[in-house]
Structure formats: structure tokens, C-alpha cells
Amino acid sequence: MLNITRRQFLSYVGAAGGSSALLKTSLALGLMPDDNYAGPVKIKPAANGEQPTALILGAGVAGLATALELEKAGIHCTILEASFRPGGRNLTVRNGDKIDEMGNPQICQFDKQDNLFFNCGPARIPGHHRRILHYCRALNVPLQIKANSSKMAYFHDDNSLGGKPKRIIEYHTDVRGLMSELLWKSAENNQYDQLLSEDDVAKLMKFSQTYGDLTENGKYIGSERAGSTTDRMLEFPKPHAPIELKAMLDSQFWYGGLMGAELYDWCEPLMEPVGGMDGVIKGFLRNLKTQPVLNAQVKKIYNRDNGVEVTYEQGGQLHTVQADYCFNNIPAYFMAGIDNNFSATYQSGLDSVKRGHLFKIAYQMSERFWERDGIYGGISYTTDPIGQLWYPSHDIHAQKGILLGAYTWDPKVGAMFEKMTPAERLTAGALYAEKIHPGYSKYIENGISIPWARMNHQMGCGMRMSPEDFDQYYSLLQKPEGRHFMIGDQISHHSGWQEGALASSEQALQQFNRLVSTNTKSGEASHVA
Amino acid sequence: MSLKSTLFILLLASAGGTLQASEIPTPVGLEYCTVCHGSQLKGNANIGAPRLGGLSKWYIERQLSNFKKGVRGAHSSDVTGSEMQSMVRHLTPGDISAIATWISKTESPTPKLTVHGDIEAGKNLYQGCAACHGADASGNKAIGAPALNGINDWYLLTQINHFRSGIRGTEPSDVYGQQMKAAVSTVQSDPDAANLAAYISQLN
Predict the structure, then answer these.
(1) Are residues A142 and A223 in the same domain?
(2) Where does the Amine oxidase domain start and stop, copy by copy (chain A) (predicted)?
(3) Is A404 found in the same domain as A327?
């Protein structure tokens, strides 16, 4: 483009592609904001020049990010963490690490190798989670692409195709073909005469032919897009026999599974920190002036006239600390067991947050047998209780690998696994996975299980409120009660995601800024008892 | 120096007066109990973990042993019972005795009333219970009947219903549980159960 102004260029694009092309090009040129995210909240100095102090309860992602932003403004933070480790549900385990399950403590037996680790909590980051990506950049947490889908992986359902697993690409291709064939037939039978011109109906038939790989007369007879039953390098490809339309319609789980890599939070490519998700936690800790106080279990939280007073217990001793503001990352359902002077309504709001039963298993496999089957990363899906198998996309062709052997957030299935001993869970998980990968069990060297609803000090993952409670209490919990803010993914529309936790922290800090800048005396009574 | 700019740590052990007599620190190793049962074991309905303060040592020991032996908590529908089972599985009789001693010393506020029922109707139903548990629900150690006052009303209701439905009290070796299972035959409906729990809870 020589001697052409940006405005001229845009008018050409607009003429060629209509207003939506103009919009997209404008975005690409940075003329219009794509979203409002402009980095974390900048904490303003207090109106009276006297910096307040803060207590952060819980060293999870929301707590650590809140502390980091407050410390940048010179605000002193005390971070109390009930567990022996910081990070909350951002937990990566390696050789020798303790898994603090209530009643069933486990020690991770993975070999002592850098590439043998497991992300027990968050494990993937989509490109539009701007907040967590900001921190990865700012805290020097290197990322790599995590393959969240592999079309070579499998769908499995005992009630479909005789329980035989099917490659996702074969199923995808057949579904497209069968749906396109129906579209062709409708067009051929003049179903769209009212809607489309004759020319457009012809285009629609052409589209369905291309989309579904149909024959000249609109039939789907299988497609080499899903591979071949012959060696397609040396011979003409011969497509797999397609599934029947009736079988496709009966395979309800599978057509649900089609969405596995289609939804916004799972849209490719996703990312993961190199070496484990806890790289994020380590990044925060490297950059915090004050480290969390560990093994410090909160017993009381009181809004006072001039701040918040918290009593915690550590090593059999009770300690009381006080600060001007408190940011509380503790799972809300624990708050009924912690003495407090919150209003009855606020406490009811906290009580409305229910425990989630997310459950995971991970196995150390002696060989990466899935790679010999053409699967490099991605997920197989099954109707069996294990739900999903995740194949690692890092350290391709290494000798061993950590395979996610179960992933469910169904409360009933989670409860079933929670009742088992860790050894029973590993046995059960292997039996189910044998249906997808015959011989699976013989590669298992050791394994761990993470029932989040039984993990000490978390007792849940994927918190949820009923729709009615959400209407009644969510906005209440988004606001502070006195000087006390609830934070964490629980105070977001995105429970179970670090991005939700960071959004809650951002929201609390914006309100904090307003409180501090309007309070002429930051020690003044500001809560309503 | 003002509070607002100073974050201070107060060691309650050395500060004396601030610590109430009832606020005894959690023995090392038993912090797990307070995660669910709450600060000073005050109970947490969100977790289904009842207040434990006010229970007799002998009753706590019996229940912990029952959970350990699978006399209690083994029923497939007893979700919180199974959670308790996994917590006591590894305890020795000595551990159980030490835990019971600690629990019997903890104090916490009287639980709030949350179950609404017809108190008069509950009173009539309770006549059959009073023979063992006492007119004031303070229990009778000699016949193995625990005190019922001071227990959360929602927990009483849950357990009455567990006895009614056989989630509790059907295990052959659960002698006392089987007696209870027989005794709750007078509770014939969900409103009956709520009325009874509501009556017992206001006996405090």
C-alpha cells in the first residue's frame, strides 16, 4: 500500500467487505478497543496520605494477586494461609509432594523428573483470559501451547456402537457428512424456496457438498478426511465405513462431546506454564515483599469501627491481627464455622455458595503408549465415571508421561470416588480406561487422586450457587461488608478458573480505591453493624 | 500510634484476659476437626458438620468408635457419615479418648434455631423420647442416651430422618442405633420430624 492513508484504506475495505469487515480491520489497526482490560488495578494513594494496611486471608491466586497490587502501592499486607503450602487450588504435584486429603493423605510417587508433574487444579489458559496472561507475562512465567484437543483421541460410550471407542476425527467427519446430506436433501426437495432464491439454493447445495464431503448427487459415503483403512502414502485412500444416521442420533453423549474443543474457554490454542501451573504461584511469591504465613487457620473475623480484626491459630497458639481492610479468599462455605459479626444477610449469602465436587486422577505411565496410537496431547471423552483422559502435550516422545486418568465435576460421580480409598480409585479408574485403551493398566506405575471436596482447607472446587441464590446474593457478595471483601473465583461467574479469581480481586481493588480515596480519615467507622 | 497505620500481632497466650476460658487452642494434629466443625467446634451446616460442644465424652468416644468400625457411616446414602469414617479410620483407642476429652471441654455459642415446627406437637412426640433422653434432653449415661440439648436443630432433624429411613440404626452391631430406629417409629411424617427437632432445640 503506497501513499495511502489509513482512513482511505478503511474506506476501501468497507466498500469491499461491508461494515463488519470494516469493524474487524479497525480492531486490527487498534482504532477501537477490543475489550476494556488495561492491566491490573492501580492502587491510588490514600486521600489523607496515610497508607492503610491489609489482611489477606488465603494464599490462592486471588489473594496473592490482591497482595501484589497493594504492595506495589506501598501497602503492608499480612497474608494468612491455613494450609502448609501457598497456592490454594493452583496445585502442581511432583515426586514427594504431599496431597493433603482429609483422612487420606497421599505422597506423590512420580519419578523425580522435571517433566513428571500433574496440575491438580487449573491446567489450561485460553488466549482471552487476559488477567492471568498479564501476570504470566509480568511475573516471567514462561508458557507453552497445551493441546486441549486431539482429533486422534477417542469418544467412548457403552451405549453407542457396542461400546467400541471411536476416533474423534471419524465421528466429526461422519456427523458433518450426515448433517450435510440432510441439508442437501432439504434443498433438493425445495424446502428453502420461501427463504432463498434459486441461485442461493444452488449455493447452499454446493456448500453442503463441500462441508460434508458429499458425492455429486449429495450422498455421504464416508470421507478420506477421517483417514483411511489403507496405507494412504502408498495406496489410494479407502474411507472408514461411516456410522449410520440413527446411530449418530442415538449417540447423545458423543454429539455433546463435539463441543469439547468448541466452547470459548476451551477454544484453541490453550496454554500452560512450562513445568507446571504452580509457576504462577512461584511468580507471585518471587515478587511479594511479604510471604504468606502458613499453617495459619482463621478462627474469627470481626469488622471493627476502625478496621478488621482476625484471630488465627498456628501451631496450637491463637494470634490476633488487625488491619484497615481485609480481603478474604477463604471458601465461603467455611465462614459459618468461623466466628464473625457479619450481618445475617451477608452470612446467608456466604452460606449460599455450595461445594463443588471436581475430581481428578493422574497416573505415571511407564510408556507414552498413546503416542504410538497417534495421540499427541488432547482429550478422550467417555460416559464412564472417569469422564476424560488427558494426554500430555509437553515432553513429546519422552519415555514416561503423566496421564490424567479421570476428570469429572458431576457431584454424584465425585462423591462415589470420594468414598473410595486412594488405591481403590486408581484401580477403578484403570478398569474404565481399559475400554478405550486395552492394556492401559500394564503401563501404570503409580498414581494419585484429587477429590477437591475432600482436600484440607478447600473442601471443594467449582463452587456454585443456585440460580435463585445467585439473583439474591451475588451482587451482595461482590461488595464489601464493612472493610471486609470476599474474593476468589467463588465471587465470579467463572468458578474453577484462575481468571475468575483475578476478576474478583480486580473488582474488590476498584472498590477499595474508591473507599480509600473518599475516606478522609481511613480509620473512621465505615461499616454498618 | 493509631491502629489504622499499624498492623499488630497480639499473642493471646501472653495477653491473658482476651482469651475466654472456653477458647482452648486446637491440639496439634487435630486441626482437621475444626476445618469442618468450625472454630471451637461450633458447627457448620454448609459442610453438614454439627456443633460438638456439650456432647459427653462417653458419647463422643462411642460415636468415633462406631465410625471407625463401620457401625456408623457405612450406609451408601450417608454422605457426611462416610466423610467422617475416612477421618477416624486411622485413629487408635488412645487417639479417640484424647479427642473426646478435648471436644468435651470446648464451648461455643448455643446454636441458632433454624428448624421451624409446631412446638406443641413436638412436645407430645417427645414424651416417648423423654424416658431415655430425659425431660430436659440432658441425656442419661446409664442407659447410653446422649444429651440432645445443644445439638444443632438441623442436625437433630437429619439424624431423626436417618433413623427413620434406615440410613442409621440398621447395622446389626449398632445396639443403641437399633433402639433409636425402633423408637422413631412414632415419628410418622416429615412435619413430625421437624416438630420434634424444633421442640428439642428450644429446651436449652
Answers:
(1) no
(2) 61-508
(3) no
